[in-house]
Design brief:
The protein is an alpha+beta fold and 119 residues long. Helices cover 43% and strands 40% of the residues. The radius of gyration is 15 Å and the shape is globular.
Amino acid sequence: MNQYETVFILTPVLSDVQAKEAVKKFESLLKRFKAKVVNKEDWGLRKLAYPIQKKSTGFYYLFQYEMDGQNINPLELELKRDERFIRFLTLKLDKHAAAWAEKRAKRAKAATKAAKAEV
């Protein structure tokens, strides 16, 4: 099993419910291809570096997962067919990148806990 990281951008015209449905679709695709989700992050609405499909913002999401390499192409094909996903990038993580991603995920979880404790 290889470790992968996919960042995708959803179109900003989606409502919160529609955006959550798109994320659930991605998660169900991962389950269908027998992937194990290691980490997922919602980066929220961000400004794009350049307009894509006449849109200047998008909802960013990051998923880290373990999956067999032969399932990447069918997974990406499903993303290309869905109009809600305006861009995506999938990277295969080597051992150093995987270790760094794990540290980043732990820091993000600690920051989230600290923010909830302040409220």
